[in-house]
Amino acid sequence: MIDLNTIWFVLIGVLLAAYAILDGFDLGTGVWHLFARREDERRAHLTAIGPVWDGNEVWLLTAGGALFAAFPPVYAAVFSGFYLAFMLLLAALIFRAVALEFRHHNTAPAWTRWWDWAFGLGSLVPALLYGVAIGNILRGIPIDVAGEFRGSFLGLLNPYALLVGALTLVFFAMHGAAYLAMKTNGDQAARMRTCVTRSWIAFVALYVAATVASVFTAPRLFEAILGKPLFWACFPLLLVSVVAIPVFANGPQPRRVFAATSATMFAMVGLAGTSLYPDLAPSSLDPAFSLTAYSASSTPRTLGVMLIITLVALPAILAYTAYVYYVFRGKVTGDEGYH
Q1: How far is CA 103 from CA 37, 145, 206, in A?
Q2: Distance CA 189, CA 41 (A)
Q3: DSSP-assigned states of every residue in 12-62
C-alpha cells in the first residue's frame, strides 16, 4: 500500500526531475556558449533561454522547500554537509544570472568576453556539482547515529562522485544542444545536431562506466531492484529514449530529440530514486544510520496538509509554465538579442 511517506518521496523525485529537464538545457546552453564561434551564435544562445531560465530555477527551490517540509532531518544533514559545495554552486549561479542581465549594457569586446566566460563557467560548474552531489548520495555520505554529517568538502570530491558529475555535465551539454537544435536555424542548428550525436557517445560511455562503478561502490543500489515495479517503468523508457536520441538528431523534427533527452533524464532520475528507496540520505558509516522516508519524515498530518496544498498549487504552476513556453515557442536568431 502506498502511504504518505512514499508519495512524498516520489513527489520530491518528480520535482528534481522537472528541474533537471528544464534547467538542464539552460546549463547545457551555457556550456556550448563557451565554444560559440561568432557573436550572432552567442546572442542566439541568450535569446533562446532568456524568457525561461529564471522560471526553470524555481523548480529547484520548490524541491528544496518540499524536502525541508517533508523530511527535515535529511534537509539538515545534506545542506550542512554540502555547505561549501552549495556556496560554490550559488556563486556560479549568481555570476550566470548577472551575465545574462548585464552583457548587453556595453558592447566593448572586453566587457562581452568577461560576461561570456561568466555565463559559460556559471553554467558548467553547477552542471558538474549537481552530479557530484548525486554521486555522493548514491555512494552514501558519512552520517552518524545523530543524523549529523561527519565528512569534509574534499571528501565529497571522491572519484565516484566526480564520475557521476562528469556524466551529468555531458548529459546537460547534450540536452542543451538538443534544445538549441530545436530553437535555432541553418548552420547553427546543424552544428547543434552534430553536437548532440557526439555528446551522446560520451554520455553512453560515461553512463556505462558509472553503472559498473556503482556495482562495486554502492552494491546496495541493486539489491532487489528487479522486484520494484517502478524499475520496469523507468528502465524500458531509458533504453528506448537513449536509442532514440541519435536517430532523432539526424531526423527532420528537432523537437523529437529534445523529447528523447528529456525522457532520458526523467528515466535516470526515476531509476536513481528506485534504487535508493526508501533511503533519502544513505549513511556510509553504518546503514542503520541512514535517513529514510520513514525515519526522517515530518508527522503524517504535516505530510497530508502539504499534499493537499501541492495538489492545488502544482497544476497551476504547470499550466503557467506551459503557457510561458507556448508564448515563446518558435525559432530565435542572433539578430534579436536577449533584451
Answers
A1: 17, 49, 34
A2: 10
A3: HHHHHHHHHHHHHHHHHHHHHHTT--SHHHHHHHHHHHTTTHHHHHHHHHH
Which residue in 217, 94, 200, 119 sits closest to 162, CA to CA?
217
For residues 118 and 101, the answer to whether their CB atoms sit within 8 Å is no
Q: DSSP H helical segments within the chain, as ranges? A: 4-33, 39-49, 53-70, 72-81, 83-102, 109-139, 153-156, 159-183, 186-217, 231-249, 254-276, 300-327
- List of residues 6+ apart from 203 with CB closer than 8 A: 167, 170, 171, 174
DSSP letter for each residue of 101-125: HHGGG---HHHHHHHHHHHHHHHHH
Tell me phi and psi for residue 332, to 5 degrees: -125, 160
Q: Give the separation between CA 54 and CA 33, rounded to whole angstroms.
A: 18
pLDDT in tens, 286-304: 999 999 999 999 999 999 9
Question: How far, in Å, CA of 74 to CA of 116, rounded?
Answer: 36
Q: Which residues pair with 279 in a beta bridge?
A: 292
**Which residue in the block uniquely carries the three cell numbers 542581465?**
101
Phi, psi dihedral angles at 224 (to 5 degrees)? 60, 20
3-class DSSP state for residue 149? strand
**Contact assessment for residue 214 and residue 225, using Cβ atoms and an 8 Å cutoff:** no
Q: What is the pTM of this model?
A: 0.94
C-alpha neighbours within 13 Å on the C-beta side of residue 292: 12
Rg of the chain over Cα atoms, rounded to whole angstroms, equals 20
Looking at the DSSP assignment, which residues form a beta bridge with residue 283?
A: 141
**pLDDT per residue as tens digits for the range 184-226:** 988 999 999 999 999 999 999 999 999 999 999 999 999 989 8
Cα distance between residue 321 and residue 319, in whole Å: 5
How far are the Cα atoms of 145, 285, 295, 310 from residue 292, in angstroms, in the given order? 13, 15, 5, 21
* d(C-alpha 314, C-alpha 316), whole Å: 5
Residue 1 pLDDT:
61
| CA nearest neighbour of 246 among 187, 202, 180, 185 | 202
